[in-house]
Amino acid sequence: MQLSEIYKLVQEDLARVESQIKSVSEVDSPGLAELSSYILAGGKGIRPALTLLSGKFCHYNLDLLLPMATAVELMHTATLVHDDAIDNSPVRRGRPTINEVWGEDKAILLGDYLFAKAGEFVASTGNLRVIKLFSQILQTISGGELDQSFDAFNLEQTRDHYLQRISSKTASLFSMATESGAILSQAPEESIEVLREYGYNLGIAFQIVDDVLDFIGTEEEMGKPVGSDLAQGTLTLPAMLLLERYPDDNPVKELFSSNDMPEGDKQERIKQAIELVCNSPIVQECYAVASDYCARACHKLGLLPDNTSRQALKDLADLVISRKR
Amino acid sequence: MQLSEIYKLVQEDLARVESQIKSVSEVDSPGLAELSSYILAGGKGIRPALTLLSGKFCHYNLDLLLPMATAVELMHTATLVHDDAIDNSPVRRGRPTINEVWGEDKAILLGDYLFAKAGEFVASTGNLRVIKLFSQILQTISGGELDQSFDAFNLEQTRDHYLQRISSKTASLFSMATESGAILSQAPEESIEVLREYGYNLGIAFQIVDDVLDFIGTEEEMGKPVGSDLAQGTLTLPAMLLLERYPDDNPVKELFSSNDMPEGDKQERIKQAIELVCNSPIVQECYAVASDYCARACHKLGLLPDNTSRQALKDLADLVISRKR
After folding, report:
1. What sign for the dihedral angle of Cα B255, B258, B259, B262?
2. Which of A86, A105, A143 sits opposite B149 (nearest CB)?
3. A99 and which of A85, B169, B218, B293 could share a cystine (Cβ 3.0–4.6 Å)?
4. Contacts for A244-248 with beta carbons within 8 Å, 24 or more apart?
5. pLDDT tens for each residue of A129-154
6. Closest approach of chain A CAs to the CA of B17, in angstroms?
């Protein structure tokens, strides 16, 4: 199953979301126009697709779902722009980041602008429930990232810590994408809850796979250097399992314990960690955990009306596990 | 007239705003609690006072005005946190900035969190008009700051540029403060417009005085180093008038034209510019412009019901001109 087949059901409306997003860069200010058109080209689009698909179980109302799906993608983009500034990341999606080309100051302000623009699209739905959801999820994301940055290079983190972190960072936005689609199509409360849970668990699975790909992917596939989580001091599931497996002599432990390791030595440790992960069952273990979350995501989908959108959500869960980038 | 006398009318409710703001730092995450309680101590409180005073002309409803006034102050604080990160400012209100103590990454995330929190307070009013206003003003502020950062060290700026900049940066939030207070108290459209204009013009005057104080104030009064605008490459009204007065041999021109001036020479140029401004009628000229905006602010207040709040707004306009910090 290809992503394009899954999206078929909402293909035309996804194109409308894309053109709404592009319209954000049609502004008088030349600087803002340049930065926003640069950052708003491309993107995976899984989040807006989730909003549209989740709107297919009751009264599909494009007038409300279109601005909401647009807001979801803009909010995601804004968090990426700020994340890259925070991590000093030079590359994203195979292209230099905003901070790399225009500097960190522009990245901060562009992110703020995109948050505001996302807020405007959400407000235009006129639905107070999704408006409140939006500001709560933004708190969850930024609060979670703050926790993560306080936890950087900390080896004393449990798996619960990790799940908490990716829940705030990724699953919260996925759940907002599905929940808001359900709310705006006036789905019954039970369906809203089923779709919220679907989005949440899918988001956890998606992030675990992302974290594995940071070890086993190639720079070309990922559009950014592999091993970047370790370089930032972020302990993800594969690294945690590696620490459990080799508690004493471990390159991650060495990397996180030294404050003044020369850059070449750091890169060497990251390379060793990647090799150890790739030559162990850790990758399979991580996929097993992610599969479990995908199963949880789909668990209650049976409570929704049986339609092509429900099938698309199931297929999407399968695809999240098998994706390569 | 003292500020405390002007605020007397809303003193108790301002104390409630303060305690709402303090409650923002009562969170489980220790890192977030530490950062937010640090930044949310202190502040001038003119913006929330404007919201409360503007709510006094029709149905004063504290249940709505309290979250709105809180949101206005949180939004202002969030923009300051991001501004300081962008400018690498070490000191604000006489204390080290977030970026100085905890680093730029924490400042970015704390600012995002405070924006989200502000959004939650606005959403809790349940009033779509102020919710939309909030996201539009956040766009105006961040878009305006972006324009300013593209214009840094640019000598080819007109007075219109300057007014446009301070309109986005300061007047927009002042106008949101007053307009939202009027909307939430169900004031008639004419009164809403009078109060919006009052806030807007008062904000312009406030910022002009702020820009003058960056030349004539002391570090102790201002809580930050004087001449910081020039150091950031920001051309404000006093510097513009100085360039008009001395078009050829001018320390501002030298400062802005050189890419690689040693730090000591930069400081020398800033000192010269400050001296030249202080020993010329430029300060008086700037105050005349600010006074003109205060007069515009008060011009239509006569259309509002004649009450103590209207008098307080007039007194506040007088005070903005005479403030020393």
Report:
1. negative
2. A105
3. A85
4. A245/A280, A245/A282, A246/A276
5. 999 999 999 999 999 999 888 888 88
6. 20
- Choose from B26, B109, B130, B136 for mutation: most chain A CBs within 10 A: B109
Is the model more confident about A65 or about A150? A65
Rounded to 10 degrees, the C-alpha dihedral A79/A85/A88/A90 comes to 80
Going by the DSSP 8-state scheme, the letter that residue B8 receives in this structure is G
Residue listed under structure tokens 């983009």: A77
Please say if the pLDDT value at position B44 is more than 70. no
Of A301, A297, A289, whose CA–CA distance to A317 is shortest? A297
Neighbours of B249 (CB within 10 A): 7
User: Mutate which of A64, A105, A110, A180 to test chain B, going by most B C-beta atoms within 10 A?
Assistant: A105
Domains of chain B, first to last: 3-322 (1.10.600.10)
Contacts of A104 in chain B (CB under 8 A): 86, 104
Of B104, B106, B74, B110, the C-alpha closest to B87 is B104
Mutate to test the interface with B, among A121, A135, A169, A180 (most CBs of B within 10 A): A135
Among A91, A79, A81, A101, smallest CA distance to A225 is for A91
Contacts of A113 in chain B (CB under 8 A): 139, 142-143, 146
Greatest alpha-carbon pair distance for chain B in Å reads 59
Reading phi first (left if > 0) and then psi (alpha if -120 to 50, else beta), residue B233 is in left
Sign of the Cα pseudo-torsion (A243, A222, A317, A42, in order): positive
CA-nearest residue to B79 within chain A is A112
Residues B127 and A101: beta-carbon distance below 8 Å: no
The answer to whether B209 and B320 have CB atoms below 8 angstroms apart is yes
For residues A307 and A276, is the Cβ–Cβ distance under 8 A?
A: no
Label each residue of B50-61 as H, E or C: HHHHHHHHCCCC
Judge whether B137 and B172 are in contact, CB under 8 Å: yes
Q: Among all chains, which residue has been given the structure tokens 């400012």?
A: B89
CA distance B325 to A183: 48
Interface of A with B (CB under 8 A): 27, 29-32, 35, 82, 85-87, 104-106, 108-113, 115-117, 119-120, 122-124, 126, 128, 131-132, 134-136, 138-139, 141-143, 145-147, 149-150
Identify the pLDDT of residue A264: 92
Nearest CB neighbour to A139, from listed B85, B120, B131: B120
User: Which ipTM score applies to this complex?
Assistant: 0.94
Q: Residue B68 above 90 pLDDT?
A: yes
Phi, psi (5° rounding) for residue B25? -90, 0
At residue A3 the predicted structure's pLDDT band, cuts being 50, 70 and 90, is: confident
Question: A36 phi and psi, to 5 degrees?
Answer: -70, -35
Q: Provide the pairing of β-strand B91-92 with B95-96.
A: antiparallel
In the numeric block, the tokens 């059901």 are attached to A9
pLDDT score, position B251: 93
For residues B108 and A85, the answer to whether their CB atoms sit within 8 Å is: yes
Tokens standing for B86? 């962008």
CB B194 within 8 A of CB B302: no
For chain A, how long is the longest CA-to-CA vector?
59
pLDDT of A43 higher than 70 = no
